[in-house]
């Protein structure tokens, strides 16, 4: 999820599924707001959220999708925002929230799981992290596989420019599933097996379920931002890139 090297200060990969996990679609909004939005977001605020894989979510819970938006609209630091949210986290189903402010080089992880325990607030240390649908850096097949593959690729490119499109194509289009003995065992084995690859594509009786958008967000030390996305629209894969610069703060 994030790396710090000589040239690139931040790389994020975001994967979005559809059906069932409606909240995840909302992730698109904050990311878009990040580059289309107002000044505070242009100064480098980034937020994204994933649901925690669990049984029996509360139907009356508030939508987790509002959390990244609230952060982007606020002027609080990631840590202050996370601390301010702690008293309300039980109103939402299980989530993992990443809040970052590039200008102050701060990134915080907030989660309201495990259930019944105090909310987790953790500074995300510089280095490589992967977040899926369990806590940050959980040893899931797809998490470990993506982490190792990204590390290999970074090693291969060394100090030279990393071609984001290629990285995305190589790392995020990966359909290799987990060994069945290594599934988390939260819901049905068949379903977890189908969800266990980095790129998800499943035929269900209700239609196709799977990855519908993958994005890479890169920010250089000089503040140049590039948001590259490949996404499914009416059954066709399309791509888009948006570039801008985070203004220097006084
Ligand atoms: C898992 O995926 C296969 C292939 O797409 C599909 O036939 C099967 O119904 C899926 N299982 C579940 C539980 O969705």
Task: Summarize the entry for a quick read.
The protein has 250 residues and is an alpha+beta fold. The chain is 27% helix and 29% strand. The protein has one domain: Penicillin V Acylase, Chain A.
Written description of the protein model:
This protein is α+β, with helices and mostly antiparallel strands and 250 residues long. It has one domain (8-245): 4-Layer Sandwich (Penicillin V Acylase, Chain A). Helices cover 27% and strands 29% of the residues. The protein contains 8 helices and 9 strands. Strands 1, 6, 7, 8 and 9 form a 5-stranded antiparallel sheet that branches. A 4-stranded antiparallel sheet has the order 2-3-4-5. The site of 2-acetamido-2-deoxy-beta-D-glucopyranose has 7 residues, from helix 8 and strand 6.
Keywords:
250 residues, alpha+beta, Penicillin V Acylase, Chain A, five-stranded antiparallel sheet, four-stranded antiparallel sheet, 8 helices, 27% helix, disordered N terminus, binds 2-acetamido-2-deoxy-beta-D-glucopyranose
What is the average per-residue confidence, as pLDDT, rounded to a whole number?
Answer: 82
- Which ligands does the model contain, each kind named once? 2-acetamido-2-deoxy-beta-D-glucopyranose
CATH architecture: 4-Layer Sandwich
CATH class: Alpha Beta
Shape: globular
Overall helicity? 25-40%
Which topology does CATH recognise?
A: Penicillin V Acylase, Chain A
- Helices and strands, in order, run as EHHHEHHEEEHHHEEEE
Taking pLDDT < 50 over at least 5 consecutive residues as the criterion, the unreliable ranges are: 1-11, 16-41
Q: What amount of the residues lies in strands? A: 25-35%
């Amino acid at each position: 999820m994030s790396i710090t090297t000589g040239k690139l200060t931040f790389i994020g990969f975001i994967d979005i599924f559809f059906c069932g996990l409606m909240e995840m679609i909302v992730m698109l909004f904050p990311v878009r707001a990040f580059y289309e939005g107002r000044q505070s977001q242009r100064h480098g605020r980034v937020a994204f959220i994933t649901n925690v894989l669990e049984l029996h979510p509360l139907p009356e819970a508030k939508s987790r999708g509002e959390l990244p938006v609230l952060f982007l609209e606020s002027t609080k630091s990631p840590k202050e925002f996370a601390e301010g949210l702690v008293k309300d986290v039980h109103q939402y189903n299980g989530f993992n929230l990443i809040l970052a402010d590039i200008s102050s080089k701060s990134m915080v992880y907030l989660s309201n799981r495990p259930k019944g325990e105090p909310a987790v607030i953790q500074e995300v240390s510089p280095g490589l992290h992967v977040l899926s649908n369990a806590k940050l850096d959980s040893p899931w097949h797809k998490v470990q596989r993506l982490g190792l593959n990204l590390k290999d690729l970074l090693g291969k490119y060394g100090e030279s420019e990393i071609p984001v499109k290629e990285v995305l194509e190589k790392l995020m289009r990966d359909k290799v599933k987990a060994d069945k003995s290594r599934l988390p065992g939260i819901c049905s084995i068949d379903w977890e097996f189908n969800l266990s690859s980095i790129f998800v594509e499943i035929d269900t009786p209700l239609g196709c379920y799977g990855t519908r958008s993958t994005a890479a967000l890169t920010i250089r030390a000089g503040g140049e931002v590039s948001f590259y996305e490949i996404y499914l629209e009416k059954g066709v894969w399309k791509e888009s890139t948006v570039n801008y610069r985070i203004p220097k703060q006084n």
